[in-house]
Amino acid sequence: MTETKVMLDTNILIDAVVSSRPEHHAAIDLFSLCVDRRVRGCVLASSLKDFYYICRRYIPEPDPRGAAIRVFLEILDVVPLDRDACELALDLPEPDLEDAMVLAAARLSDVDIICSRDRRAFGEGGIPSMTAAQVLSAMGC
């Protein structure tokens, strides 16, 4: 049986680290599936950058954000956002370019599910979009 490949959107990374976020526990459980290799988690490098920038308001200095990114790099595959993905993103029906880039990279990397709390994103992309809780449910957890 092959692993389900799940692209994690930036908001899922933030949910995993910031305990006050509404989907914190589901995100933590999803990361546990990645650690156990029941799910093959992946992420764009740009999502790691965005995570770092956004989490400055949640996580005080000195910089534990870098520690979180190191953990993400140990657990997740980094999917390329290369020229092909950028060109594909421009042709996708996704209205938000950043979401289109996630979708394009997911398509080119044979991702099965995009995990995001953004319910408006990825609707017409051909890859199911689910919240962390929905992914857990789909995996029988």
UniProtKB/TrEMBL annotation:
Keywords: Hydrolase, Magnesium, Metal-binding, Nuclease. One of its GO terms (molecular function) is metal ion binding. Residues 5-120 form the PIN domain. The lineage of its organism: Bacteria, Bacillati, Actinomycetota, Coriobacteriia, Coriobacteriales. This is Twitching motility protein PilT. It comes from Granulimonas faecalis. Gene3D superfamilies: 5'-nuclease. The keyword Nuclease applies. InterPro entries: PIN-like_dom_sf, PIN_dom.
